């Protein structure tokens, strides 16, 4: 089954519950007419939506191999429409296209499914028009699957008419993050070596390290957006009004901020991965593990020294703290404090 074979979902309660509900509604044929899928990656959301769309029309609820499944996955199935923004705004014209599709009779058996990517990019006109469609769907046979990386950017009246599913994806750092990640990893490994060696046992060093790491990530994340000044001057030269330009500017800034936040979160997660790996190694050596099985065998001598003095309950507690911090990270503005705290606790392990 397609919905059982998704390899980019975190294995956690929320995702498991989401999948269970979707499977049940497929099996009982009790589908909603509008879904809203949210998560940190529009690419992953799109894949999920196509999997679900295939499952809704496939006779076996998503075999993955029949014509309906394979054509849906390729986005060429006649009963499927995928719409997305041209650039940074989802306009009224796109919604009109969607309305036409939804009011036509189906080409073949089954549901007409319309996937709308990045719903948060709808402008006001498009949102209002789309809202009417949701309030009064053209026929019972249409299903809308809306996708968004940012729930807060969508008209609340649209959200309230959808079955909302929030997904947690496995983090992957893209190629563009490699250099910054390498910088951060080097600095952090070096810092942890110093923190663990007794003669550097001072909080000032730890706080400075934390600040440096955050600084690198923040600066790097700011370069991830699109160059809006260039785009704006292009739009100006096409004769847009001041009001229009201002709106577009706001949209791009918001989109860039989302991209920067996402990149920053990836970076912080990478930092926590590295600290956890050190902790796991120290605990493992304390429990008798040999060098070969460690995450970072090259740090064996310092890990061994630390392991001798280790307060093991504290180490387990710290691993737990790191996982908890990860979970509330995306809702918190206190990343800096959290990282300070974790590094200070690392210093207090012996
Ligand atoms: Zn199938």
Tally of distinct domains: 2
Q: Report the C-alpha radius of gyration, rounded.
A: 25 Å
The CATH C-level name of the largest domain is Alpha Beta
Reported by name, the CATH topology of the largest domain is: Rossmann fold
- The name of the CATH superfamily of the largest domain reads P-loop containing nucleotide triphosphate hydrolases
List of distinct ligands in this structure: zinc ion
Overall pLDDT confidence: 87
In whole angstroms, the N-to-C terminal distance is 50 Å
Widest sheet: strand order? 2-3-4-1-5
CATH architecture of the largest domain: 3-Layer(aba) Sandwich
| Element string (H = helix, E = strand) | HEHHEHEHEHEHHHHHHH
Helix content: 55-70%
Structural class comes to: alpha/beta
Would you identify the regions where 5 or more consecutive residues have pLDDT less than 50? Answer: none
Beta-strand residue percentage: 5-15%
Q: So how many helices?
A: 13
Number of strands: 5
Q: Per the principal axes of the C-alpha atoms, what is the gross shape?
A: globular
Biggest sheet descriptor: 5 strands, parallel
Describe the structure.
The structure is a single chain. The chain has 350 residues and is of the alpha/beta class. It has helices at 13-28, 42-57, 67-73, 92-103, 124-135, 156-159, 178-196, 203-222, 228-237, 242-286, 300-309, 312-329, 335-347, and strands at 34-38, 80-83, 112-116, 142-148, 163-166. The protein has a five-stranded parallel β-sheet with strand order 2-3-4-1-5, with helices on both faces. The radius of gyration is 25 Å and the shape is globular. The model has no long low-confidence stretch (mean pLDDT 87). It binds zinc ion (ZN). Zinc ion (ZN) is lined by residues 58, 60, 62-63, 66, 68-69.
């Amino acid at each position: 089954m397609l919905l059982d074979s998704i390899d980019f979902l975190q294995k956690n309660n929320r995702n498991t519950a989401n999948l269970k509900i979707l499977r049940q509604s497929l099996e009982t044929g009790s589908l909603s007419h509008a879904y809203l899928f949210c998560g940190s990656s529009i690419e992953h959301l799109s894949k999920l939506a196509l999997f679900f769309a295939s499952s809704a029309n496939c006779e076996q609820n998503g075999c993955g191999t029949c014509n309906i499944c394979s054509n849906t996955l390729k986005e060429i199935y006649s009963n499927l429409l995928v719409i997305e923004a041209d650039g940074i705004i989802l306009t009224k014209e796109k919604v009109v296209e969607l309305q036409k599709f939804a009011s036509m009779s189906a080409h073949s058996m089954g549901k007409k499914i319309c996937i709308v990517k990045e719903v948060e990019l709808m402008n006001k006109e498009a949102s209002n028009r789309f809202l009417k469609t949701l309030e009064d769907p053209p026929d019972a046979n249409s299903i809308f699957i809306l996708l968004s990386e940012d729930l807060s950017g969508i008209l609340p009246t649209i959200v309230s008419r959808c079955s909302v599913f929030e997904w947690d994806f496995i983090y992957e750092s893209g190629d563009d993050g490699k250099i910054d990640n390498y910088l951060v990893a080097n600095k952090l490994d070096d810092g942890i070596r110093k923190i663990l060696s007794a003669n550097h046992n001072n909080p000032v060093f730890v706080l400075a390290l934390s600040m440096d790491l955050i600084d690198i990530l923040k600066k790097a994340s700011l370069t991830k957006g699109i160059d809006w000044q260039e785009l704006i001057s292009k739009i100006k030269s096409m004769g847009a009004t001041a009001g229009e330009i201002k709106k577009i500017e706001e949209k791009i800034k918001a989109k860039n901020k989302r991209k920067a936040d996402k990149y920053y979160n990836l970076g912080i997660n990478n930092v926590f991965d590295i600290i956890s790996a050190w902790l796991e190694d120290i605990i493992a050596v304390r429990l008798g593990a040999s060098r070969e099985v460690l995450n970072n065998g090259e740090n064996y001598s310092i890990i061994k020294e630390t392991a001798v003095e280790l307060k093991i309950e504290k180490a387990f507690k710290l691993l737990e703290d790191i996982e908890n911090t990860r979970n509330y990270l995306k809702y918190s503005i206190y990343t800096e404090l959290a990282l300070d705290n974790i590094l200070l606790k690392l210093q207090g392990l012996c």
